[in-house]
Every structure is written in structure tokens, then in C-alpha cells.
Write a structure and sequence with these properties.
367 residues, alpha+beta, FAD/NAD(P)-binding domain, D-Amino Acid Oxidase, Chain A, domain 2, 2 domains, nine-stranded mixed beta sheet, six-stranded mixed beta sheet, 21 strands, elongated, binds flavin-adenine dinucleotide
Length: 367
């Protein structure tokens, strides 16, 4: 049995590692190198109580493998709010499983907080930095050791059914396999259309990031992730500096995303309201696309013979990566998954078969 995996981000590379255990796998990536798009632009965090119940189940199931891979290190997360935000603060800090702190306690963890504005704080210690490079390259090494082939600079522009399998073509090359795995991130619906498969309704949303110098020359190494309410901003230590995100969710067509100066400025304003040192300069900025299915859970599995989805990773592609890839492997092999059946059915693409009859309310904390 053979499989072609389309996409060289965390989804595709983890799928290649999983499927190459018992089949010939060829991974095909359009760009010059792996993780060029969303997978190279994340905040690299693991937050167990982030996203809806299905996402949380996948994140929990990924915790053991992520620990075994040695990619998690303690960071902690601190939520900060103004007095007039107490109602939403109560909902959000509980939803993230955080404990209330006094402002004095919060200031020990995050010494730049602005006591003129911050009156509410909550903290959770078991939030982790996730070494995304190590995770992705660990999966890559496993796939290569199992004999998988990686082809880069190969943008697939034609997919046809070929007997019981698939033929894919890119400028200067082609490949054939029994199975096709669509791990094309923001482009996954386009890949399905190319194969003559009904789309899911995936929507990419841009999220930007700015790197700034350590405020007032502080040693930020042990500071927690600090965040505002309603995903208004977050700031995280990164290589001795801070990365600050406006946490925007702007719908976009699939493309090589870049940050928007105005959006960054507005997000930095929301961050600045809660801290004392001013931001004088952005050292570097970037953006990536977080791609969601209409109900904000991943799409894993098949509803058309030989065509499997591993898509809709949204803002959780790394922290759900190991369990998502394992489920894909189980579904391809026809094995029983260790995940609860209700979680598996909430991930299957078949849930979108009668899309026109359903509505998907956005959950209060959307991820
Ligand atoms: C700012 C930001 C912060 C984030 N923070 C976190 C976080 O803290 N924790 C977390 O878990 N997640 C986070 N995420 C989400 C995470 O980065 C994504 O969920 C994940 O990277 C998606 O991986 P992917 O493999 O599905 O997509 P991608 O990495 O985009 O990979 C898809 C690949 O498919 C390729 N492709 C598309 N079409 C074709 C074609 N026709 N032929 C060949 N190749 C093709 C593309 O070139 C691309 O490389 C964040 C994302 C962003 C943008």
C-alpha cells in the first residue's frame, strides 16, 4: 500500500511519520522547505484548556507523546484585566483553568504590569513552551527512517483518480499512490476541489506577531505568557525578547501571509495599556494563517474512497499534532482509536455532509 501526503507542515510531516510505519509514503510540499507557512510562524505554546471540547480532548491525548518527545518546557500563563472587565474575566479565567492572583502576586511573575490599569489577574502554571522545530523534525526523522520520501518545490496542480488510486502532478514531476492525504493547511479545500472532492468550508484567518526588545532591559526568560481578555493580545518571552500578538482573526484567502502594520499597532496599544514600559520599536514582524473548519474542530478521516483529510488545525496544530496523526493512522488502517468515540465522530469529515442544514455558533473562547 502507498500514500501521498500533500503538505509539509506539522500536519503532513506527522502524517508521513505515522503512515510510513506500514506503507510507502511520499510527502509533497510546494515550497523550498518544510514548515514555510503556518507551521513556521506559530507562538509555539501548549495550553491544554484552549479551544472547544474536541480540541481539548486531542490536546490531552497529545500530552504524553509531547512529553516523551521532550518538546515541552514550563512557561505558565497569566491573564490580566481591568476592573470594568470583571464579568468576562471570570468566564475566561475559569475556562482556561486558571487561579485568581492578587495584583502583587501577578507583579512578581510579570514585573512590568501597570498597576493603574490591571486590577484582576489569574494564573495557570501548567502551560508550556512547545519546541515546534524539534517536534516537526522528530516526525520527519521517523518518516525518513521508515523509508518515506520527501519532495519539496513541488506544487501539485493536477490530481486525478487512477483506478483505485490517485495520480498527482506538479511542474516537472508526478507520483501515484493508493491513498491521498490532504494536509495542505490553508489550501486544503483547494486541494480537495482539484481532486473532485466536496470541500469542507475551511476558512484561513490571519494572525500577526511582533518581536520587541526585552522591556526596560529586563531578563524576561522566566516570565509567563501574559494575555488580555477576549484574545485581545498576548506576549511571550522568546530568545531573550518578547513576541507580542494582536491576536487578530481576519479572514483571508490562502496566501503567503504577512503582518498588517495597523493591526499590529492596535494590538500593541492593547498590550501597552497593561504594562508600564512603552514600545518604541518593532524589531521584526510576521503573520500566519490559522485555518478553521466551520465548527472549529480538526477534520480527520475520509468520506470519499482513498481520500483522507488532516486539516483545519486552526490555532492548535502543534499541541494536537501527535494525537491527530495517530487518529489518522488508525482510520487509514481501520484500527480502533484510543480516543473516545464521540471525539472521533466530532472530527470526521462526514459531519459536514449536510452542512447547509446546520449552524455552528462560535464558542466564547475560540482558539
Ligand atoms: C501566529 C500563530 C500562532 C500560533 N500559535 C500556535 C501555538 O501556540 N500552538 C499551536 O499548537 N498552534 C499554533 N498555531 C497554529 C499552528 O501553527 C497551525 O495549526 C499549524 O501549523 C498548521 O499546520 P498545517 O501543516 O496544517 O499547515 P501548514 O504549516 O500551512 O502546511 C501546509 C503546507 O501545505 C503546502 N501545500 C499547500 N498546497 C499545496 C500543493 N498544491 N502542493 C504541495 N504542497 C501544498 C503548503 O505549502 C504548506 O507548507 C499558530 C498559528 C499562527 C499563525
Amino acid at each position: 500500500m502507498s500514500a501521498i501526503v500533500i503538505g509539509g507542515g506539522i500536519a503532513g510531516v506527522s502524517a508521513a511519520a505515522e503512515l510510513s510505519r506500514d506503507r510507502h509514503v511520499t510527502l509533497i510540499e510546494a515550497e523550498d522547505h518544510l514548515a514555510h507557512h503556518a507551521s513556521g510562524r506559530s507562538a509555539a505554546m501548549f495550553i491544554e484548556d484552549y479551544g472547544n471540547a474536541t480540541i481539548r480532548a486531542l490536546s490531552r491525548a497529545s500530552t504524553g507523546p509531547l512529553q516523551d518527545a521532550g518538546v515541552l518546557s514550563p512557561r505558565g500563563a497569566l491573564m490580566l484585566a481591568r476592573a470594568d472587565q470583571s464579568e468576562i474575566f471570570d468566564t475566561e479565567h475559569r475556562s482556561f483553568g486558571m487561579t485568581r492572583l492578587s495584583v502583587d502576586e501577578a507583579a512578581v511573575l510579570f514585573p512590568i504590569l501597570n498597576r493603574d490599569t490591571v486590577t484582576l489577574a489569574a494564573y495557570r502554571a501548567d502551560v508550556f513552551d512547545l519546541d515546534t522545530d524539534l517536534l516537526l523534525h522528530g516526525f520527519r526523522k521517523r518518516a525518513l527512517a521508515n523509508g518515506a520520501k520527501f519532495v519539496t518545490r513541488a506544487r501539485i496542480d493536477k490530481i486525478v483518480r487512477d483506478g483505485d488510486g490517485w495520480q498527482v502532478t506538479w511542474p516537472g514531476g508526478e507520483a501515484r499512490a493508493d491513498l491521498l492525504v490532504n494536509a495542505a493547511g490553508a489550501w486544503a479545500d483547494g486541494v480537495a476541489a482539484m481532486a473532485g472532492i466536496a470541500q469542507i468550508g475551511l476558512q484561513p484567518f490571519r494572525r500577526s506577531m511582533a518581536r520587541i526588545a526585552a522591556p526596560d532591559g529586563h531578563d524576561v526568560t522566566r516570565w509567563p505568557l501574559a494575555e488580555g481578555l477576549g484574545e485581545g493580545w498576548y506576549a511571550k518571552p522568546d530568545a531573550g525578547k518578547l513576541i507580542v500578538s494582536p491576536s487578530e482573526e481576519h479572514p483571508m484567502d490562502p496566501h503567503d501571509a504577512f503582518s498588517d502594520d495597523m493591526v499590529l499597532a492596535e494590538g500593541l496599544d492593547r498590550y501597552q495599556e497593561m504594562v508600564t514600559p512603552p514600545v518604541t520599536r518593532i524589531e521584526h514582524s510576521w503573520a500566519g494563517l490559522r485555518t478553521f473548519a466551520p465548527d472549529r474542530a480538526l477534520v480527520i478521516g475520509s468520506r470519499d474512497p482513498g481520500f483522507f483529510w488532516l486539516a483545519g488545525q486552526g490555532g492548535y496544530g502543534f499541541q494536537t499534532g501527535p494525537a491527530a496523526a495517530r487518529l489518522l493512522g488508525d482510520l487509514v488502517a481501520g484500527r480502533q482509536s484510543e480516543l473516545p468515540p464521540e471525539v472521533v465522530s466530532a472530527l470526521l469529515p462526514a459531519r459536514f455532509e449536510n452542512l447547509q442544514n446546520r449552524t455552528f455558533p462560535t464558542p466564547p473562547i475560540s482558539g
